[in-house]
Amino acid sequence: MKSSDVRNAFLEFFKSKGHELVKSSSSMPKNDPTLLFTNAGMVQFKSVFLGEESRPYTRAATCQKCMRAGGKHNDLENVGHTARHHTFFEMLGNFSFGDYFKKDAILFAWELFTEVYKLPKDKLWATVYLKDDEAEQLWKELTDIPAERIVRLGEKDNFWQMGDTGPCGPCSEIIIDQGPEVGCGSTDCKLGCDCDRYLELWNLVFMQYNRDESGNLTPLPKPSIDTGMGLERITAIMQGKRNNFDTDLFSPIISAVESMSGISYGKSPETDISMRVIADHLRASTFLISDGLVPSNEGRGYVMRRIIRRASRHARLLGFSEPVLCKLVDAVVDSMGSVYPELSSEKERTSKLLMIEEERFSRTLEQGMRLLDDLISKMKDGQKTIPGVELFRLYDTYGFPLDLARDIALDKHLLIDEAGFHSEMQMQRERARASWVGEDEAIATIYKELASEIGETVFVGYQTLESEAVVKAIVKDGKVITQISAGDEAELFFDKTPFYGESGGQMGDIGNISNGEIEADVVDTKKEVSLHAHVIKLKQGNLKVWDKVKCVVDLSSRRATARNHTSTHLLHTALRSVLGDHVKQAGSLVSPERMRFDFAHFYSLDRKEIEAIEDIVNAKVVENIAVQTEVMNIQDALKSGVIALFGEKYGEEVRVVSVPGFSSELCGGTHCTATGDIGAFTIISEGSVASGIRRIEALTGMAAFEHLRERSNELRLIAETLKTDKPAERVEKLIADLKETEKEVDRMKAKAASQNSSSVLESAVEINGVKVISKRVDNLEQKDLRVLADNVRDRLGSGIIVLSSALNGQASILAMVTADLSKEYNAGKLLKSVATLCGGSGGGKPDMAQGGTKNIENLDKALEAVYDLVKIRKF
Description:
The chain is an alpha+beta fold. The protein has 24 helices and 35 strands. Helices cover 40% and strands 25% of the residues. Strand 23 and strand 24 (595-600) form a beta hairpin. Helix 12 runs antiparallel to helix 13 and helix 17 packs across helix 18 (607-623).
């Protein structure tokens, strides 16, 4: 059975049992600070299990994109060495939200396995939680599994939880006995053995509890079902393979690697490991990039960078010296693009991003090699072990692999401190986890509790900027209180509000509230869960819960924000028109003052491209097209061709904002009534913010006019200063004249250096058969000192040169050793010794080194010491 048939059979089976087939969510969960990546099928339903969200269905089935690399669930280092470990995998799952429970979950699983997949009944086992009598009895009553093949296990094996906190409960695992020929051969081999004989296929979680930060368990509103079965594992069983990598999920990628490398899979354990690593990591990288992630030095992006670099390292072990992962993307897309269409639409971007990362890793690898060589050269005599803390620094900062450091150390008859390395790694993981959990995405418990107590805030700000409202809650300094007085700052929660809460990149509204007795400024509005938190400063009166107030949004601020928000939609479409369809929004900031737009692209924009983008946007502004908004079903919206953003979580009903004939996006923000309201649009900056991510900042309305006026005034001032009506031509001529003058100065300096070199050469002293020059030549800049040194070296032929020049309170020092002597004498070490003697620093290569000092009074003594250093060969 093909993997596609295994996947489809699962989904169609549960569809026939009344389950809604739900599309896989992103591999990166939104608004869940406990997870770096989606590591289970239930992640997208977590809020449903907790009773915080309702869906129009109570049964669901999915094939979910999952990642286990970083955080609690981390399989990265095992990948390639075992038959089952993966970073990316697909999890098949069926879910019940307060609908069916243990009985039906067990019945469905047994029917699918024995009647659809036709697995042998006499090979199947079941495990249950130690204290779950009900589950054990159900397995006995509902299936053909005899009592001796139903095993009770403890909390470690049969009590499931997604993270340190969240939904959890006892579970029951279905195991298949693959036979003694697959096992370890031990006479004591039994269920629970680390070998692959007894292989877990499906985990049925009976979701009954929620675990809080203190470890306390509280019953969920409705007992539910969460199951998970790895597609890779069940496919291996269905295809009679003992290794997941031998299935058709991986074989197309491995075949492509074979073809490109000329190495056959199965030739040797070492090359097999490298091919498996590449196949797994390429799948992971391709899926993550298609979901909008870009490599970076923190969080999810850092984990992906490690995955790409580990794959690139193994590609090198197979003999690849040029980027190759980017050329293998087709193999992933060809085999999985029909199931996950985002792979096909993002193929070009994925290939480019991988190529950039591979090239960058190649450069950092070379840098790491130099740093490791330098580290080894500094080791004290008798020291045989490279410190783990230094190896981790190379790994963490430069991506230098530990296994490569181990190989180099072995070549030099040295050891590495692996224990110290892994200790540093563990501390880094703990720091990263603490940092991740503390990010702004975390939703404070207080807001969740308030939402369940007072209900959601009704937003009326699309229709009006003023409304009456009732104060339903007050929060001050993180605590719920009942009233505040003049001078207090707090957060207010109303039954309804015209104030837009910060979300989707748009800043929250400002304004004021009043009721005749109190008056307060609203300085910010935030969206928390289903609530709008109004950050206020109470100017007069006392305000209590249940007071009625009038809410008024600042009109000028709202209009300016709307101009900038609508312009981001126009900009997005213009970018795709000018640069290509690979452009995807990667973030934005919309405020009254300006707009910022991050997008996927690989190169800086030239002036013509920027002007073309501005022209397109401003043309739509001049057309004054009416902006339309419509609420519609998510599926209908997507079919109509609207742009949906990476990583955003959309409900069944979505708001579509359109500029007819030009732009259509899913958006909950506030916008202009017509494009002409924007007034004018101008880009003020464009640059890189991450690998493959560019950023544009722009102004609209009066801010754009003011910016253009300032630029015009600056140009007019330059023209007046230069006394010309063609300032650009005049500046070009001045620059050309300046360059010619600089060339003439350089020629004069070279001539002076040639003359000076004669007097410098006269100071040469012969020591141990080597000509040595150590001389001070003041009032020369460092580059001029280098010219002089080059001239002296060329005329000297063979020897050692140390020159120094004092200028403006500091001195440059330069050391040179001619090529014929560089194996015996090291300019870098000599320079360090001399610089140290006069309180300076510096370094370089064996043939040339540079440094400096501010301690000029000791400079002459340091230069005099050069002769002794050469005499005793102390460098």
